[in-house]
Amino acid sequence: MIEMKNFYITSPIYYVNDVPHIGHAYTSIACDVMARFKRLQGFDVRFLTGTDEHGQKVEKSALARGLDPQEFCDQVSQKFRELTQILQLSNDDFIRTTEARHKICAQEIWRRLEKRGYIYKGVYEGWYAVRDEAFYGEDEIVDGKAPSGAEVVWEKQESYFFKLSAFQEKLLMLYEAAPDFVLPAGKMSEVLSFVKSGLKDLSISRNTFSWGIKIPNDENHIMYVWLDALTNYISALGFADENAPLYQKFWCNTEGSPIHIVGKDILRFHAIYWPAFLMAADLPLPHSVFAHGWWTNNGQKISKSVGNVIDPLKELEWLRAIGCDNEVALDYFKYFLMREVPFGNDGDYNRTNFLARINSELANNIGNLAQRSLSMIYKNNNGEIVDISGYKDDDNPLLLAEKMRENFVKNMQNFAYDKAIYEVINFATICNQFINDKAPWLLKKEGKEKEMNEILSIIANCLAEISVVLEPFLPNLMRRLQNILNVDKGFKINDLNGVKISEPRALFPRLEEIIV
Ligand code: MSP
Q1: Which of 15, 16, 31, 131 to mutate to test the pocket of ligand 1 (most atoms within 8 A of CB)?
Q2: What one-character-per-residue DSSP string does 176-191 give?
Q3: Whether the predicted model's global pTM rises above the 0.85 cut
Q4: 90 Cα–ligand 1 center, Å
Q5: Residue 139 pLDDT > 90, yes or no?
Q6: Nearest to 187 by CA among 319, 345, 29
Q7: For an engineered disulfide with 129, which of 150, 277, 284, 403 has Cβ 3.0 to 4.6 Å away?
Q8: What is the three-state SS of 334-369?
């Protein structure tokens, strides 16, 4: 039996202080695309997402709405769960930090840290930003605020500390030995400079409010929300029990993973605190933490107070209003987010660019290629794709398919989603050029049926190639294309000889903004 390679990918777990927005959708979609890609590559994949429900921020939001925190969390967490369903994400699990399976894991980690001598009691005094749920050093405060712009308060309280300072050298050794630990590569310098500036011990418990996981052996303290939250990545695998099958499989025996996809704002927690906690607990480390950039809205920073938060559900509604069915709306939305901006960079979301991108690359390029070739095949030769092995000219675009696939895979392995897609678009452009040059509609008029069938069948094989590689980005549309071509996942180049296609339909509607 061939043993499958295991691959584990996680999104951050989202705070339930507010409903989902584009940032949440973005991270989750990026994980989903990678999970689908790895599944196609034959990996046994596990993709985890969920909600981060403890801490002061969530407690405050619940109180502001006059709700009991648990009740509030139940309501908002449900919205995040629904978003994963609406976006048709392929997550295998959805973890909530208020679940018992999570709490026992977080407490087990605490016990391990304590047993191994990395926890002591003291007094914390310093700045805290509730919005970021983060402590800040005096040197990090800019104009009385956190570097993120969040309000800070001066806190003084009894607290348990984690000996983070003991991990400065070990972390530097880790980054040196595993340069892929922080991705994209450009983000490593930020992590290095923070660690090199000197790591102070970290306050990991609070006793001024109660919405959190109780620490073992001290009723008065709850766990710092980031220590609690980070452990979700293993609590969802059944850790607490080191022999739990999922934990063994997806945390201890993986290839090129675990990978945590996070926004750039929470890189510090994932690339510094998390490996330090794991080392202290004597547990294996993840393979990489990938930090992506942030979206702005029409050039403006997205913020609740400005009122320009982008709601993914509204964007899908807009796409349906301008003529997409729900499956197409979803695929177009995912495609734009993954294609528009190199993963890792900041980017700007605006509908004008959205329309231009979809129309030029999908409707006018791949869509046009599919439309004109498939409808001709269907109308001629009884809908059958012919043997093309006799076609000897080296202008055959199918000869480029393997290289395209290779480049696609290479880019995907580097999380260069935009470049991976570009390889396919470029290939489709070449195919369109080929069909323009060969003009099968003229060949038909001239009675050169055999040549016409060959040209069209070459394109059908190229479309099958496209449908296989782009499936992680456009699962609905590529499945539709595969259904027309009667292609299955095991498709190999030049496989369609003798296949009868199903009646084609227009796959990629062109988008026009409705001016009201
Ligand atoms: N609960 C923590 C994560 C804990 S993981 C153990 C958290 N939650 S969050 O809901 O505030 O943020 C979730 C993600 O959304 C972060 O990765 C963040 O970077 C991302 N985004 C928030 N706004 C964003 C944009 N405007 N654009 C892109 N992503 C953004 O942090």
Answers
A1: 15
A2: HH-GGGEESGGGHHHH
A3: yes
A4: 19
A5: no
A6: 345
A7: 150
A8: HHHHHHHCCECECEEECHHHHHHHHHHHHHHHHHHH
